[in-house]
Write a structure and sequence with these properties.
180 residues, rod-shaped
């Protein structure tokens, strides 16, 4: 009888040990799954945070765009008057209409570059407006380049009217500095 009790207790102990082992193994599997899920979610949250940070930077530019555009436009108005350029007749922002008008005038009449060169050379306020425009536009492009990792917005501005006008104004400025 004692042997039977010892055998039953041994079998119960072994069954309990095996049961506890199976439960621990299942718990370890679940903990591993939880760990993998948490790691995946953490990585996903970091990606979302990066995207939101970039969007916040882009949104900051968009929110400040009117201030930036107005500042650039204020430097263009006297230049447009000096070279007799009229803004485009479109529904665009006044800055883009002004830049479009200047570039359209240059496309129609290459002598516009010479007019601008003379204005820069003879009128210090026009020279200062051109210099301010170039500085602020370059600063805007640099900001867009550093805040937006894929560079789509910066390249759009560089390839568009802003970049064309910078090239035009830089040419006129260099001609004024190097000319008689």
């Amino acid at each position: 009888m004692q042997n039977t009790i010892i055998l039953i207790l041994s079998i119960l102990t072994l069954a309990t040990t095996i049961g506890i082992f199976v439960i621990i193994r299942n718990l370890n599997s679940k903990i591993s799954n939880i760990n993998n899920t948490l790691t995946f979610q953490y990585n996903l949250i970091m990606k979302i945070q990066s995207v939101l940070k970039n969007k916040n930077a882009t949104n900051a530019v968009a929110e400040n765009a009117e201030i930036i555009y107005s500042d650039l436009l204020q430097n263009l108005i006297p230049v447009m008057a000096a070279i007799d350029a009229m803004p485009r007749n479109t529904n665009e922002h006044p800055l883009w209409r002004a830049l479009g008008g200047i570039m359209d005038e240059y496309a129609k009449n290459p002598f516009t570059l010479e007019k601008l060169r003379r204005c820069i050379k003879l009128d210090s306020s026009i020279a200062q407006n051109i210099d301010n425009y170039i500085t602020r536009a370059n600063r805007l492009l640099q900001y867009l380049t550093t805040t937006e990792p894929d560079g789509i917005l910066a390249s759009t501005f560089t390839d568009g009217l802003l970049g064309q006008s910078l090239t035009f104004f830089n040419q006129a400025q260099q001609l004024a500095e190097n000319g008689d």
